[in-house]
Amino acid sequence: MGVTIKDVAKKAGVSIATVSMVVNDKAGHITPKTKRKVLDAIKELDYRPNFTARSLVRKASNTIGLLVPDITNPYFAELAKSLETALNQAGYITFLCNTFEESEREKRYVNELISRAVDGLIICGLTSLETTIFASLKERRIPYLILDNRFSAENFSIHADDFAGGELAAKHLIENGHTKTLFVGSQNHYINIEQRYQGFKSIMDKHKLETNYLDTELTRVGGQKIAETVFKMDITAVFCSNDLIAIGLYDAAAKQKLTIPGDLSIIGYDNITFTSIVKPHLTTIQQPIHMLAEKACYHLLQMIHTPDYFFYKEILPVSLVSRDSVAAQ
Amino acid sequence: MGVTIKDVAKKAGVSIATVSMVVNDKAGHITPKTKRKVLDAIKELDYRPNFTARSLVRKASNTIGLLVPDITNPYFAELAKSLETALNQAGYITFLCNTFEESEREKRYVNELISRAVDGLIICGLTSLETTIFASLKERRIPYLILDNRFSAENFSIHADDFAGGELAAKHLIENGHTKTLFVGSQNHYINIEQRYQGFKSIMDKHKLETNYLDTELTRVGGQKIAETVFKMDITAVFCSNDLIAIGLYDAAAKQKLTIPGDLSIIGYDNITFTSIVKPHLTTIQQPIHMLAEKACYHLLQMIHTPDYFFYKEILPVSLVSRDSVAAQ
């Protein structure tokens, strides 16, 4: 016999209702600590919640909805292409929806995709913290997973190790003698970008170094907009939360005859294809795009085909790609 | 009373059946000259074919399907974003479908979009010359238009003036003293790219200059792949049919310590955002992305809302963006 919800409750030392709430992401009144205990018990016992009803209600349409925040960011274009390739091999076609980081549009897309009977959804970079989106998906028993960006209350998520990415960037700067640094984050407070900052800061803290913080749009224009402020700061290095912002700083530096990395060292994030075109080639944190896509495809198909399939989250490794945009101090 | 099909036939000096065939794109047995006469008569008389039945059959779903060949090409990412913005303002959401230049996938997407009751389709860069796709859209009276790439037999198309783009590139090279040139086209024989070549060649012909021709993939890798061949040719300048190919040549040139434009002048096509990042900044032909998107949105909405709406094609202007990748000989 399989493991039951009772076993999990016993192991975690909580009530069955609590386990149920965690599994169904209705964790509003549960402390992170309790949640952690439940998730650990689920993992240890290899408990698989019974979602059977899910597969009984719907017919297969062989289509998947994919929400991305900005398709003109080459990172999301590459990710979308990888996902589409993987899903196509599995016999699915993908409707790609560009949400422009607008929660209103995210909601409309999800509703439209639901009414068009998609078999599943992959949601990247959702800005809306409203759980109504997830609630209506659950109600209709449409499998979905959160890719790249995520919310702490969500099961079924896949992302790269953003905290480790921030640590790698900080270590690289410290190894190169930088003590006055800046982190550039996003105006939309994505959790993955917050994690990059936390990782970065944790290493700086260890070395008793302060670090500055700025927000901007996650675009090339976003980088150009903050350049003036950045160039006036008493810093020697910037860690940008994506490559496009770094490229925007390159643009502004060229205009002001500042040299990179002579006047300012820069690290990006994502390793989009154009990081090896800019001069100097941009040092950056590589996200495992193909692995993210493969894992997402694998788990989503399991969720579609196996009624009781459950996974908590997958965290994939990142790496530093050292090129020419960081100078030794 | 409005103009009738009889008036058009009389004006063009052809039968009513011939006019009907042109209007319904069943122009298989009609010579281009006859077709031209019919289209001129339609325009002169402002004739509007009666497509009333179209709007009676279907309910509005407020969704549009958009097919693009490669979302990782920043040109198509920008175009998709512009289209989505324009359509969203008009109250529509867009399902973006990435066809990877595979005709099998194009057909699947169109069928899926049909079965999901989209109100209209915008089709970019279709590789499939099979008219079955268009036939099934017509049968179901789903309005669609061809954007960017197109087929000579199609009405309802919008594209930039590719022939003029080719001419501009050729004139620019000749003005800079280049007599030994190369055109790089696509392995998939898109008509728009063929037109760029024809425009380029027409100017070279006028100056009694020969030009070389090569095909490759329309990607950065496509440029890298042909680089060795290109660098061995007895030429001083290359006109690439898109910017990504040009960037691929930049990559290979850097590896082989060739300088651009010292050793080789290069012109791209599209003016994607990264042309102003590469060093030297890439001289290229600018496509009017926002205008293409606005026109496409305008016409498609007319087609959806006005049963008898008809337009033949719109050709939008291109321009040369002269930067640093062409040297005077």
Description:
Two copies of one chain form a homodimer. Chain A has twelve helices and twelve strands. In chain A, the strands form two sheets. Chain A has a six-stranded parallel β-sheet with strand order 2-1-3-4-5-11, sandwiched between helices. The longest helix of chain A is centred in the C-terminal third of the chain and has 17 residues, at 289-305. Chain A is α/β, with parallel strands linked by helices. The radius of gyration of chain A is 21 Å and the shape is globular. The first copy, chain A, is 44% helix and 18% strand. The first copy, chain A, has three domains: 5-45, no CATH class; 59-160 and 296-305, 3-Layer(aba) Sandwich (Rossmann fold); 162-288, Rossmann fold (3-Layer(aba) Sandwich), CATH 3.40.50. Chain A has helices spanning 5-12, 16-23, 32-45, 53-57, 74-89, 103-115, 132-139, 162-175, 191-206, 220-232, 243-255, 289-305, and strands spanning 63-68, 93-98, 120-124, 144-147, 157-160, 181-186, 211-216, 237-240, 265-270, 283-286, 313-316, 319-321. Chains A and B meet through helix 5, strand 2, helix 6 and helix 11 of A and helix 5, strand 2, helix 6 and helix 11 of B. Chains A, B: Keywords: DNA-binding, Repressor, Transcription, Transcription regulation.
